[in-house]
Amino acid sequence: MDVGLLSLLAIFVPILGSAAVPLVAAASRRAAGPTAVAFAAATGVFTTLLLFDLRPAPVIASSWIPTLGLSFDVRVDALSASVAAIAGILGALVVLYSTAYMRHAAVEGYSLPRYYAYILLFIGAMVGLALADSLLAFLIFWETVGLCSFLLISFYHRDPKARRAGIKALAVTQAGGIGLVVAVVALWSQHGITTFSALLAASPAAAALPLAAFGVLAAAFAKSAQFPFHPWLPDAMEAPTTVSALIHAATMVNAGVYLVARTLPAFSGVPLWLETVLWVGVASALLGAVGALAERDLKRVLAYSTISQLGFMFAAVGAGAMFAGSFHLLSQALFKALLFLAAGAVIQAAGSRDLFKMGGLGATMRLTSVSFLIGAISMAGIPPLVGFWSKDLVLEGVLHASAPAFLVLAGVALLTAVYALRAWWLAFAGSARGAAGAHEAPLPMVSVVAVLAGATLLAGVLLEPMSAAFVRTLPAYEVASLTLAVALTAMLTSSTVGVTLAVAGVAAYLLVVHRARFEREPAPDAALARGLTRALRSGFGLGAFFDILVDGFARLGRAMLRLDTRDLNLNSGAVLGTLALLVVVFSSGVI
Amino acid sequence: MPALTDEFLAITFGAALAFFALGFFALVARASLLRILLGLEIMGKGVTLALVGAGFALGQPSTSQAVVITVIAIEVVVIAIALAMVVRWHALTGTLKAPGVGARRTEVS
Questions:
Q1: What is the predicted ipTM?
Q2: Quick check: A554 and B13 CB within 8 A?
Q3: Contact A582 B17 (CB under 8 A)
Q4: Which of A42, A527, A532, A555 is 20 to 30 Å from A57 at the Cα level?
Q5: Residue A137, Cα to own-chain centre: how many angstroms?
Q6: Does the CA dihedral A267-A273-A275-A281 come out positive or negative?
């Protein structure tokens, strides 16, 4: 099939599906779930087919707005097709899982057709964002992804915490998103650049490049919850767990990494740009890992771990190791989807998200327990799981660029092993601290979790074909060809092998010798522990910063109300006076 | 195309800014949902006027006309959906006061 048509199908079939599901549901309420699964599965198939038709140059899929010289170009190279396939395939698995998981929501009076419609729009927008070559189309999909995240995070709309978390996510990502709007407008008006291809071909001396580079960066950091924009992501845990899995693995947070990786060759010449990407990534990796250690809410542990893993990706891209970052994106997507969907089963069984109210669930939920453990040790980076390959590639790439950054990330890799195993131990092993009568999740949920566990075990073999595809279709990105043997030799002969050994050692030590420590609840009167936890929870004061952003409009409104004289004549006079003043200022040529 | 003077553009952009500021005031400082929507509309009119002025200033009136017609069409849809939500809100709560607005806001119609 023509690759342009196939791309359009991959983008617009789920978007059409989001309109179709409520219509189908109006005829038959029970058909909503199967319809959504069908549309999501079709998207998964289309994005998978795209993987077999990669090409380095963009393709015109539709002429779109010819009067403005804008066409709807798609770019199906290894980078965009892999991000699209992650969104399509994991999206389909999440929708399948939802058919069992979201039953309780219907009982509580939340509309499932609405849920499926948002999810399908989310997946379609993410696929579109990955495939679009036109900057304007990219911007539209980018904002659609942001809108869907808001709608889904506050899906339980009767809960004020969920509403507030949704508004926070929207406000933070949109505030950063202004940077992307500035970048697109500057590139278009100054240099006539309307596509990524033109941007990559632009002269490094182009005047608007620094503004565009840092505008793009602000948008990417906000979308991917990197420091200092990170506090929205843990709060977004008020969403249904399926939505969390989607945001953390398939859509949303991947968009920021993808945007920076995509624009890397164009912006790498801008002074301080690469260094900013590298160090913001390193800082976020550290911050996320410490946050994950301090949390007692299972979902928030996973949220902080995502911030940390995304930090690894940004650090890799900032070090110029674009392939390492992209491979870690794939790897993180697999094990994070696995961890969240397993966590969903656990939370439903335990009836709580608090790790200290779980424990011992491995006895009754054996498959979920094993799957979660596979995800956790993959995240820790223990061979031969996919997380080992990607994390070592990242560490190796960063080592070539900056030794201090490598040292911090190596430390974070150790913390990763600790927090990942702590979460597993507290939920599944040790003594049962509640949750009597927990039982294994229903079949659609268990089967999706098992599929993801298998993928996490085996996806390391994708390293070779994926690297070959990157070399073939991304000539501008200086990707070196890799085989498993070459990668393994490089790892064994560089100091990253030390990190892997240390991680494995820490993991073994914790599990065999020190495991009882995990279960010790932090003493309520320990001032230091309490202070540290509070600082972490508030995002080191940055949470308050975003509360100011969210509450800003209400405060601004109250301040502006003082301008109201409560007299119609005076108010109208003020408006007309302002108009006259503006006209005088403009016509005098001051501006 | 009519000959443009600086005064023409000054009035256009001045009015655009004034409309935008007035609409923004209503959007953030009023508690009544209807007034907030009116503010949104007035802000939109300011933007539309700025687009008209920009089209004339850059010598591309047909492009700006096309964009302005599109903006007007979209605004109609937006306001229709917003009004539907206001009607629903009134049916649910019996008031037109915006939710989550502090007590210090006054005069709700």
A1: 0.73
A2: no
A3: yes
A4: A42
A5: 20
A6: negative
